[in-house]
What we know:
Chain A is built from 7 helices and 10 strands. Chain A is α/β, with parallel strands linked by helices.
Amino acid sequence: MAILEARNVTREYRMKAETVCALAEVSVAVERGDFVAILGTSGSGKSTLLNLFGGLDRPTSGEILFDGQSLEPLSSWEMSRYRLRRVGMIFQSFNLIPTMTARENVALALAFAGLGQGERRRRSLELLDRVGLLKRADHLPSELSGGEQQRVSIARAIANEPQVLLADEPTGNLDSSRAAEVMGVLDEMRLRDGKTIVLVTHDRELADRFATRVIRLKDGKVITG
Amino acid sequence: MKFADIIALAWRNLRQARLRTSLTVIGVIVGVAAIVTMVSFGLGLQNNLLRDALARIDLFTSITVMGPGTDALLAMRDQGQDGAVNDNGAGESKGEKSEVAASATPEPSPTPTRMLDDAAIDELQGISGVRYVVPNFSFSNYVRFEGRTRRAFIGGAPQSIEYNPRFKKFLAGRHFTAASAREVVVTERFVSWVRSKNKPNGNRRRRPGGPFQMAPTRSEEERAREANGILGKEIVFLIPREQDAPPSAVFGIPIIDASSSENGDFASEFGAQYEELVYRVVGVLKAEDGFDINNFMETDMFIPLDQAKEFRDANRDPMSRIGEFLAGDTGYQNAEVRVIDVAQVESVKEEIRKRGFRVWSLTNQIEEVKRIFLIVNSALALIGGISLLVASFGISNTMIMSIRERTREIGVMKAIGGSDGEIMRIFFVEASLIGLAGGALGVLGGWGIDRLADTLANKWILKQVGQTVRRIEFFSIPWYLTTSAILFAIVVSLIAAIYPALRAAKVDPIKALRYE
Lengths: 225, 516
């Protein structure tokens, strides 16, 4: 069974008078353990699809299923629990909280899961160790390089052991060697921990190099996949 | 997320915008301090009147019982004879009988119908819940002390003074040993008269009139020494010689008979000789500053009650004698009934009223005064509340600013699993922390203002009066004012945070995270 599935998903945005259709009748399925790359130009609807998978947004019609269960009936609170435990999100601009150290950023995700102070400290250091940043634990994001910041955000994404990692242009702000480093970490997550990775990118080369499967989107429609 | 973590997050947010937070908190401090100062002033006023001044002399367990008095007795007698002439006068049916006065007036305090004499006092003593009954009366008489003579006010004191607040504190000596002892207890008023001999041009400042008493100017040790100096000394009472034929006290003597006898009275009055009775000073009562509703300290000395009664009878002024002669025995004007427990005041009053006396106690007046103070305090709180209202807009503003700045952060929190409720709670906690800090510091500030104003006011009073006055606490900050002021500040802050918190909860994470 697919771990993530979109069934006839349409997402429209109302902008003043006109309605913009970001996704039109999209159906895709992501199998467990896959490294799926969603390719497309800007405005193709790839980020919209990722946000729907991530539970940050709800489709106008159609439904998103996680492990065979529809997200549609979930309440706002249940949706937040879904984001907390089922999926981990990684963003192009890292989205770390600038006033918190690397460790505190990771610990924040653990705090939302209700872990105690001591447990959070132990877990967050463990997670930073996994992405090779144990020594940088007490640095603020501004004191870290872009690649390091993205690794912190990966540590944060896997903090509550989600089965799926959703990455939105994670290498967009990085040079190619840092980008390869970050992709390597993601790939390792898949190979070692069996995580499913959904990567949104416009970089075809990156997609071809790491992905086990590529889905192309254009104007809100799937063209290959 | 654990509540402790929410508090930690809120605290962190506030600390990051220290200046803004401080300014917002200052707004709350001003508001709370205004409320506390205002209300504590009202409560202070209330306390000065009700607690310190009135409760000091245990007025709440005291009931004053009034007899009819000479005029009323005369009117009663007239009614008994003529049929009916009652207060309403014209238009009333002539056929009514004398029971009218006793039964037909359901006023709150009907005219007393029974004489307050010794038999009545004994009867009142028997009512359950009554601790003691003491008739109130004083008379003036000439006394001689160390060669000087003056007219003094003399009261009668019961032998048992165990619960009597008037005889609580002796500066020196003790109470009478027996009802028949020729012993006298003097007040400090008398002591100051004695002192005035030694310093003819000394402090001539009169005690101010009215129920409020200034604190004595001298130290307690000095007063005690002075009082001890008087103990054991003699006071000579100059008593008019007994009349040969005291006026008849028979009820209902015809007026014609009375007028002839009346002239005789005047004659004997003016021809009277004095006889001397020697009393020994056994105790000096301590004057207390504060409120003295009975002007008790205006009395110079007390002698055993039964002896005082005798003197009073022998010592009536001519006008009372005429009245008494016409009306018969007039009894006492009033008596003090002391109940064991405040809760019994009403039932005892009702019991006494049923027996035909007029009763009066402070309890209903106290309720009235309390009600008035409640209104005054509410008005004061309202005035103070306006500044807290202003501060609440400051809180809203601060929160909204903070949300605008932290939109992205809120988006991140939602993306990694924070719920709307958790986000909302962070902001509510931030607001309550502002309220708590502002409330606590505001109470402290209000307290500071109170202390300062108290000190200045007392200094000013000292300067005006020019002598040591008991320090007056103009303000009162009871624990419930402290707690409710802080709670109120928190509640106002929470209300101010409703809109910002809802707005924070509604932040769309996609939009929040989209912008670089």
